[in-house]
Amino acid sequence: MFEIEMGSGGEVICRGRLDAAQCARAESFLDGLDGASTLDFNELDYISSAGLGILLKTQKRLAGSGAGLKIINVNNHIHDVFRYSGFHTIFDIHAKE
Amino acid sequence: MRRDFKRHLDSLGGLYEFSEAVMAERKLPDGVRFPVHLAMEELFVNMVHYNPTVTTDIEVTVTVGDAVTVSLVDNGGVEFDVTTKREVDIDAPLEERKPGGLGVHLVQNLVDTLEYEYQDGRGEVIFTKGSGTDNV
Questions:
Q1: Distance from C-alpha of B134 to C-alpha of B129, rounded to nearest angstrom
Q2: At what angle do helices B103-110 and A76-85 cross, to 10 degrees?
Q3: Looking at this predicted complex, what is its ipTM?
Q4: What is the pLDDT of residues B4-39, one digit of tens each?
Q5: Angle at which helices B103-110 and A49-63 pack, to 10 degrees?
Q6: Which fold has domain A2-95?
Q7: Cβ-defined contact of B94 to A63 (cutoff 8 Å)
Q8: % of chain A at pLDDT higher than 70
Q9: B12: which DSSP letter?
Q10: Which domains does chain B have, with CATH numbers?
Q11: What pLDDT, on a 0 to 100 scale, did the predictor assign at position B99?
Q12: By the CB < 8 Å criterion, does B89 face chain A?
């Protein structure tokens, strides 16, 4: 199961498992973002390369207007996936405390 | 334990539940379960995407011993050697990055062993992930 919605503080809340079957929903939501945005991964358990592709596409689009994504509360497994993918150099990533 | 899955992304939920049940029964740590789930998805999705006209199910076997061993068998698909090193520049700046191409790279980095065999239209990927570590 994967859920994505706008939080009360303006951050994007992601929950569950972002696998290849859920990417269309994530892409549709993230395509609606304009300007700097924060993704809260506190309740996101899993992401695969398909999800990484959606994040990268969004980051490249936002960078065109000088903005970008900040990703917070990233669990250690997803953090490792980001590191193996080199995403830690092109995203503002904050691990879960 | 073996189960066959329809060659479709909608099978990913069932694929996760199947492997999670096998690994949870053995109380394997998240540090093993996470990379196993990720590698299974990446390999399964590759078999789906590279063989759009093939209709056979994909056979998945998960065995837990000293390590978790996973086999995915693709009958009728094209040859796709997932053990071949891919050129992935993880240090490239954002403007040079393109979506895609990370799946096999992640598999190669997250599993302990990775083998591929292809003969007469039958492709099989076997990977292992140790069960004694809590790290990805």
A1: 11
A2: 120
A3: 0.94
A4: 999 999 999 999 999 999 999 999 999 999 999 999
A5: 130
A6: Transcription Regulator spoIIAA (3.30.750)
A7: yes
A8: 100
A9: H
A10: 2-130 (3.30.565.10)
A11: 84
A12: yes
